[in-house]
Amino acid sequence: MPRPFYITTAIDYANGAPHLGHAYEKVLADIIARYQRFQGRPVHFLTGLDEHGQKVQQTALKRQLAPQDLVDDIAIVFQEMLKNLNISNDDYIRTTEPRHQEVVQDFLQKLYDQGLIYKGQKTDWYSTRQEQFLTDKDRDENGDWPEIFGEVTQTTEENYYFKLSQFQPWLIEHIQSHPDFINPRFRQKQVLEFLKEPMNDLCISRPKSRLTWGIELPFDRNFVTYVWFDALTNYYSAVAKKGLWPADMHVIGKDILSPPHAVYWPCMLKALNIEPPKQLLVHGWWTINAQKASKSTGNASETLSLVQSHGADAFRFYLCRDMVVGQDADFSIKTFGERYKSELSNNLGNLVNRLLNMVGRSYAGVIPAPNTEDDLEKALKDLWVITERKVIAAFDECQISHAIESLWVFISAMNAYIDTRAPWKLAKSTEASDRAKLESCLAYVAEGLRLAATILSPVMPETCEKLLHNIGADPVKAFAGQLTWSNACVGRKVSERCILFPPIEPKAEATKE
Ligand code: MSP
Fold this sequence. Notes:
This protein is an alpha/beta fold and 513 residues long. The protein has 17 helices and 17 strands. The strands form 4 sheets. Strands 1, 2, 3, 4, 8, 13 and 14 form a 7-stranded parallel beta sheet that branches. Strands 6-5-7-9 form a 4-stranded antiparallel beta sheet. A 3-stranded antiparallel beta sheet has the order 10-12-11.
């Protein structure tokens, strides 16, 4: 049995509603997880919620809720999103769970016992109104403190620090000697650039006088641990008893690569004598009208209404079709509508119906056997060989948009083939050679669709299952043996018709353009 492929996403902050950015990341990880499963590899797929910290404490106070009640409500909404998007996670971790808190405290105690956590004092600018320390980066262009901070005074605070800086040489060496650690490669350069400057030690605590909503330091009950130390540990705490560490892949956005995932996390693990994760897969940002989609960009959450109107698969398809993993992409309701209509409904949906229609009319719904093969059929078969290779290579590199592009070249070629072959004309002919061509044409299109739906299953699981069912093919359990041209549907009964992508106009309010 191969070792399970352990994949995670970032755990979302429990201080707002889920939006496009959260949805995308979960879909991307889900496609990779499903792909690995189809490749015959056992998978453990983790996602979850980041529930501690100042913001949660403040929001709870504002809403007159206990923080735990607030995060319990938010967890329901985030889990609902996962369900709606058909995310196949095997586990969901919440940082308020005992299984997580125990590991965080165990980590803290171990580091403290080794002398890697010490108490220090720092004098800094502090905003009482925002209850946060400020740095020079927070000043405005005139060097003043912006209005939102209210009165800013110098305050000295005692806190605990993790000796991060002593791991800097090891980390640089690790990144340089593991070129796959940070994917895509260009992000690695940014991290190494950051590491050219000497690092400071990492403040890992907050006094309870300022923050109570967190995990207590086991060696000093007057403090709780600060967000990143708590949050990053989820990847380990969720599988601590399952023996699945190290993670094969952490899927994260570019904003939390450096320093949290590329610096703090590997150094924390190194200090604990635990192997680092194998890869950080770093995606870019979805923007809406050129602004990062976030809970404050009003319509970033509304984009999720497209899941209700058009189905999870259409949404999954669009997100992964229009974003090159690693780059940013601008969300456009117009492009979504266009792709839904042309690529999904016309190119794929209509092709299926053309097939079902003709097989129904000419062969009582049973897919005929192919019995001629001329240049057109041969070209289609050859194109599949190339397509399969390209799609698999793209999936292996987690470049889902490339996989979809390559597959759509094949789907377009099938449409062109059927147009050239014109089976509706052949069906009217009584010539034996025309009947033979008709049989081959229908058999080839059926097989091409079977192959396309099989390989597309990680991206659009429900649609592909429906498609396969409607053309009489077996559901996909694994790719092995299913991706070679084999006329597997010959003799199978097809449905009369199948609506994969009903015509819908995307609601204008989903995004204001
Ligand atoms: N809680 C931290 C992560 C801790 S992981 C140990 C966090 N939460 S978040 O809710 O702000 O973001 C969760 C994930 O969503 C991050 O990977 C982030 O990059 C991603 N996205 C949030 N907005 C995004 C876009 N607009 N576009 C794409 N993904 C972005 O950070």
